[in-house]
Structures are given as structure tokens and as C-alpha cells.
Amino acid sequence: MTITHSKEATLEQAIELGLRADEFSMIKTILGRTPNFTETAVYSVMWSEHCSYKNSILWLKKLPKDGPHMLVKAGEENAGIVDIGDGLGCVFKIESHNHPSALEPYQGAATGVGGINRDIFTMGARPIAQLNSLRFGNIDKDRTKWLVKGVTKGIGDYGNAFGIPIVGGEVFFDDSYNTNPLVNAFSAGIVDVKKIISSKAQGPGNPVFIVGSATGKDGIAGAAFASKDITEDSANDLPSVQVGDPFMEKLLLEATMELTQTDAIRGMQDMGAAGITCSTCEMSAAGNVGMDIHLDRVPTRQANMLPYEILLSESQERMLVVVAKGQEQKVKEIFDKWDLHAEQIGEVTASDRVRYFMNGELVGDVPAQSLVLGGGAPQYQREYREPAYYQEYKKFNIDQISQPNDLKAVAHKMVQYPNIASKRWVYEQYDSMVGTKTMTTNKPSDAGVVNIKGTSKALAMTVDCNSRYVHADPEVGTMIAVAEAARNIVCSGGEPSAITNCLNFGNPYNPESYWQFVGAIKGMSNACLKFETPVTGGNVSFYNQTVTNGVEVPVFPTPTIGMIGIIEDKDTLMTLDFKQKGDLIFVVGESKNDIASSEYLTSYHGIKASPAPYFNLDEEYAMQHVLKGLIKQELVNAVHDVSDGGIYIALVEMSIPRDLGFDIVTDSEIREDAFLFGEGQGRALVTVNEDKESEFLEFMVDTGVSFTLLGHVTKGKLMVDDEHYGFIAEVKNLYNNALAIKLEQN
Asked: Does the global pTM surpass 0.85?
């Protein structure tokens, strides 16, 4: 059949769409002819970094994928699945929506939430919890305040309306994110392992349906937009930002859940990046089949949409479903019930090609495998080079910094820094109680914990990354991110199971940015192997930077780690809050004379050039193993990891929930500021009832892991080395309100 709309695309058009000259030549070779504009547009989005991972896949393949709980490994489906017992699996994933959020923060963040939830329920899982990891620039800038307010409102409005609780997350501020914020959205769901839905198309002759919303011109070429720099001209790309409708998504969820109870589905995939193009090509390639798709049958919101506009639209709340032949009416009845579109737009074929028709005319004919990750899409090994700053940072020595005379004044400043202070202003916009599964709303814990109803288990989940550490040393900093995620799971009483990642970096063609990416992959691999937490999948987001007068300024490298863990007995959930006056406070793990890359060094002293904080993977693993034993044997009644802000901030966070306090003595062999505010890794604080002190000491001596008695819990006074640091009510007020005050300042 002759292709119509067949005016050959030019090299200039291909380059304008984001393809390189050599890639355009590759396409000609694959097709045996020059592609038309529609086909070139298809290749441009499918070969974009966002869809093809062409600059990262060779390194991503080095990440560990095997673990004791794996059901579906990375790359096999839309998301990874781990076995949580009782015939259930946990489907979870994290993805970025950085570029859209930089231009239109409300819709950019909202549609990020919608997209990640669809990845979960297209596999037959009902989402039960969400997390998010957010990065913004200088909080004193008006634009940063606008971005913070827009992003958090977008996340809250969409998540709250959709009805899935947001149970945790993180917010971090640094000048490197002034132009390009990071919005990473995580979702987890529960699925009956016998009812997992595949994204592989199968069965030549089976009908192909588009279900959900109508298709419009919003989000066209969004995948290509996400694969280039943010510049002063990026406002012109606003059509690439999608528009979300959480109420429509809620209907789509319920219709999909009902559909999964039938035998009608032979494959299903969310329409996210690259829309119909991506879902048709990826499902066909995964199932080693083809498809014939009739674009004129797609329900549209605008009249006279062109073939490439329909193909590349990233309108939200849509999915592609391959239906068992003969079950078409059943599908239509379910979606009619929920007042959603369900239109047959094509059928599976026995070929290896995806063909697109418009009003009976063939407008595109492409081999599916040539378009997808692991098939014919290009794979590049980029040059990487250690940046000069790396060795300069290593020259830092603590002796260069004089210890302040008034550490009480330092402590009061510390609790008010945006990276330390309570993120209450943010999370109060989120509904953490919807669905009645959240266990940590009134029981503060280092991880978000969700009840798995009908079982004795609970799921613990967290997102973590201190990007300042990663910038200082990508390999060590990423190992710390994995270790802290595991530490948060363990401190909540869970067993770390697996991770998903969101890898946010600068331009992959910049050798120094790519060096950071390579280091992060190496560090992640080492830590994941140690903790037996395989990588189930995730997202790579390059081009996070701004270009000003030709100079590229990348964001801090930010490999966000989303980790889940299993709490076998939900009654053993461990919280971080002090329980009663007189309980003994111990630090488990060894404190070091180290302030490198700490919030104290960076914000109080204004020193940005220092290495990552002290970290030893074996010591960290041993310390976490000890925490598991202490919790299992019920020897401790509160556990909290030492991380941002050091021991002092950890103590304040343990004091606030019950308005208690602490009386501690610092280590005379370590500088007092380093002991209080240093962020050396491998430590956690625990409290022990005096009645269990002997058992605790006996247990700890046998482990060989360092531990130190700091002091005891008070009724509300904060004491350090016999100096009065104030009362918890005063400090709590500073801690809880600092961020809101900053955001509301003109």
C-alpha cells in the first residue's frame, strides 16, 4: 500500500524535531527510504532520551536486578514487582516531571502524579500510597516561591482528588535548582500475583482499544521537550505541558480495576510520554507482533487534528488495551458504566510493523523493534571526565573552620534552615489519611508505613537523596542515598526489599555531567548489592540545567532512591518519638570528627567545597543489622536515623511529637560542633527504658558495633553539656514555622 501524506521529511525538519543528522540517516537505512514527516515525528519522540535512554542504557544494564523478592524485574514491564507474601505483590515506581514543572508548576506536578499512578494500575495493582521528592532553588527568590507553591498545590490537588494518600517525601533547596526544579513522583500499589497484567500485545486479530479521555493537542512532543535544556525560550514549549484531570483518572482507575476482574485483557499500557506512539510501538515490540492503528477512530477534543498530532499528543488519563477477540462488548459496557471512552482503533497483526492509517490512507509504516529501548533505538557510550572541583573538594580539612563560641545560637539557626526545618507547610496540603491505610500519620516514623489489610504485614516506603553529597562525590553520595533509604526502612521496623530510581542529571554530552552519572551508577550498584535491594526500574532525566549566555549550569546530580520494605508484623512498627521522661538515649554507630558537606558547614559557614561525609558501607550494614535485632527483641522504644543536621537535629525531631526534651553529653574526643551537627553516616539514635538497660547493654556488647550513652529524655528542657539550649516549645515553634515564614515573605 502506498503511503499518503508522504512528502519526504527533510534533514532540517528532523533536526528541528530533536533528531541528529546521523540518526536521520539510520532511519533511512531502517526503512529503506526517506521517512515522511509523520514517521520522522514518531522516531523523534521514540528516540528521544526520555523514551529510549540512548545515552544511559549501557550503564543502566550494570545495575543489579536480582533479589530474594523479585517477581517482575527491571525492563520486563511498566514497573517492577516484589513478592510481599500472602499471594500479593507490590508494584512501585518513581518518575520525573521536571521540565513541565519548570514552566507550569501546577499542571507539571499534577500530571506527574497522574502518570506514575497509571503505571501502577495498568499492571492490575490498586495504588495505595504516594511519595514525592522535590528540589527547588534559593527560597528567597520570588520564582522559587512561585514554583514551590505551584508544585505542591498541583501534587496535593491531584493526589487528594484521586484518593491515594501521600505518606512521605523530601524537599531540598539549593541555588543549582533555581531555573530547573526537580519533581519526582513515586507510587506503590498492591496486586494479586495471579492477576498481574502484562504490557505485551498478543494474539493477531485481537482488537486494540483506546480507553479513558479524549485526545487533544496538549503535551504534543512532551518526550522530546523533556530531552533538551531549559532556556530563555522554553516558555514557547508550553504546549508540551500536559493538563491533568484527577477525577477522570479516578474513573479510569475504577474501570480498569473492574476490567482486570474479567478475562478480556490481553495487554495494557499507560499512554504517558509519546502517547499513542509509545504504547503501540512498545506493546507490539514486547509481544513480537505488529498493529494496524486507525487514527481517525481516536476520540479527539479538537477537530481536524493531523496524524502526527494525534500520535504525539500526551493528553492524560488514557490507556491502550489489547482485548481478547469476542470480548469487545464487555469492555465497552464497563467503560460506558464509568462514562469513559472505549473505542476500538485497530487490531494486532502477525507482522513486525506498526502501521498508522488516517481515513483509510496509510500515513506511517514503521518496524516496531526499531523504535524501542533494547531494539533498534540507538545506544551511545558517552565520554566522561572527572571535573576539577572533585579534587579541590577533597582538600577540605575541619581545622580550616573555627568552632563558634555560642553553639546554642548555632542550634537555633540550624532548626530554621529550609533544608532542616519542618516541611509541614508542604505536607499539610496533602491528604495522608484518605483510604484509611496510612499507619504513620499519628505515629511518626522514618519511613511512610501503609497497612496491608487482611494480612499481618505493612509496607514501609521512603524516597532519599542528599544531592549535595552526590555532587561532592557521586559514587559515595549515591551509596549514602541507598544506605539512608535502607536505614529509614529499618528504623521503622521493616526489611528493605528493592528500589526504584529517578536519575536527575545535566547534559549527557557534557563529559563532567556524564562522569557524575557514571559514578552514581557505580555507587548505586555497590550499595544495592550489599543491602540485597535490586533495582526494579525507574527513570533517567538528563538536561536538568539552565543555559545562560551559552554557559551550561547543571543541577546538583540527584539520583533519587525510592525504596520499599516489608514489616512482617505490623504491631512491631517502630516510631521515632521520645516516649517518656527518664528513658536513656544511645547513639548506635560511631561518631566522627567530620562536618564535610553538612548543612552546618554549607549554610552556617557558607563553605560549599568539601567532600562527602564519612561513610563506610560495611559499618553501615552492620549498624542496620543491629537495629533490626534491637527492634525485634523489643529492647528500644524509639529509633531515628542521624542524617541532615546531625545528632542535634535528630534529637529535636524525636522531642517534638510529645513535647519532651533531652539532656546529653557530647564526646570529649570530637569537636562539639562536629558531634552535634556533623553528618557522618552509619548512625541512629535509640531510646531505652531504664528497666531494659541491662538487656540492651548485653545485646550491644555481643554485636561489636560501637554505641554510646548520650543522656536521657527530659520533660521538655534541652540540655547539652550542662548548657540550657531552651525548651522544646520554643524550638518546636521555630522548627515548624520557619519554612512558612520564608515562603510568605515578600
From this structure: yes
